[in-house]
Amino acid sequence: MRDRPAWLYDETKQIGTDYEDLSQIRGYDQRMAKIRDVDREVAEVLDLIELSPEATVLELGCGTGEFPIAAAGRCRKVIAADVSLPMLAFARDKASLRLREAGRATDLQRIEFVEGGFLTYRHEGEPLDAVVTAFALHHLPDFWKQVALIRIAGMMKEGGRLFIRDVVYSFDPAEYEIFFDRYLLRMAEIGGEGTPQDMVIHIRDEHSTIGWIMERMIERAGFSIEAADYRAGFIATYLCLKRG
Ligand SMILES: C[S@@+](CC[C@H](N)C(=O)[O-])C[C@H]1O[C@@H](n2cnc3c(N)ncnc32)[C@H](O)[C@@H]1O
């Protein structure tokens, strides 16, 4: 295998929220439950990517493992990759507990937790049927997002499905001050204490991009966009097909 070149963006370096910090990891699911309906999100992704029982799906940036836990009941193999080793350990323990409690212990064998990220995960074996990533791609600056998308396309079958959910800006950038002030007020109402501070860190330190840039990058990487949805000026989802 080729050594990692010195010029490669260091995706293990934590920017914004530190996902190697155990207190962040342990509180993550509770924090998300205040501002997201994660069960509904995961069910929506599973409907859209249409996994067959023989399929292999990769999630990049699996976090605490909600998607792999659900997907393991639907397909042959789920590869759950993340750059944070403590996050992977948490996800593995959670999957084990949750699946045993649900009487689905055999599903655990279908999940492979892997240390690796958008720029470093190397896929071996049959090309992937589907790739999913949620709230993780914004950890890379735009040039490296483009590289990540090209790498993902290179791992997938023709016609395979890529689902992306992320913080992507679709408001008018000329209105950024009004938008961010209003957004933070709204987040304080919904998420309570701590949420606006997470968002402040996101806006200031992480690499959310603009919707039209994201769409061009996805298409240039070799995908056609079947559906693009923008919500609240801040959240986007893309269902994409790998072109031949
Ligand atoms: C905000 S969490 C999202 C977790 C989960 N997908 C969700 O929907 O809640 C972001 C995750 O992406 C991971 N991450 C950050 N940079 C990454 C990279 N370059 N490649 C893969 N994962 C990355 C972090 O360690 C963290 O677990």
From TrEMBL:
<keyword id="KW-0489">Methyltransferase</keyword>
<protein>
    <submittedName>
        <fullName>Class I SAM-dependent methyltransferase</fullName>
    </submittedName>
</protein>
<dbReference type="InterPro" id="IPR001763">
    <property type="entry name" value="Rhodanese-like_dom"/>
</dbReference>
<dbReference type="InterPro" id="IPR029063">
    <property type="entry name" value="SAM-dependent_MTases_sf"/>
</dbReference>
<dbReference type="Pfam" id="PF13649">
    <property type="entry name" value="Methyltransf_25"/>
</dbReference>
<feature type="domain" description="Rhodanese">
    <location>
        <begin position="94"/>
        <end position="130"/>
    </location>
</feature>
<keyword id="KW-0808">Transferase</keyword>
<dbReference type="GO" id="GO:0032259">
    <property type="term" value="P:methylation"/>
</dbReference>
<dbReference type="InterPro" id="IPR041698">
    <property type="entry name" value="Methyltransf_25"/>
</dbReference>
<dbReference type="GO" id="GO:0008168">
    <property type="term" value="F:methyltransferase activity"/>
</dbReference>
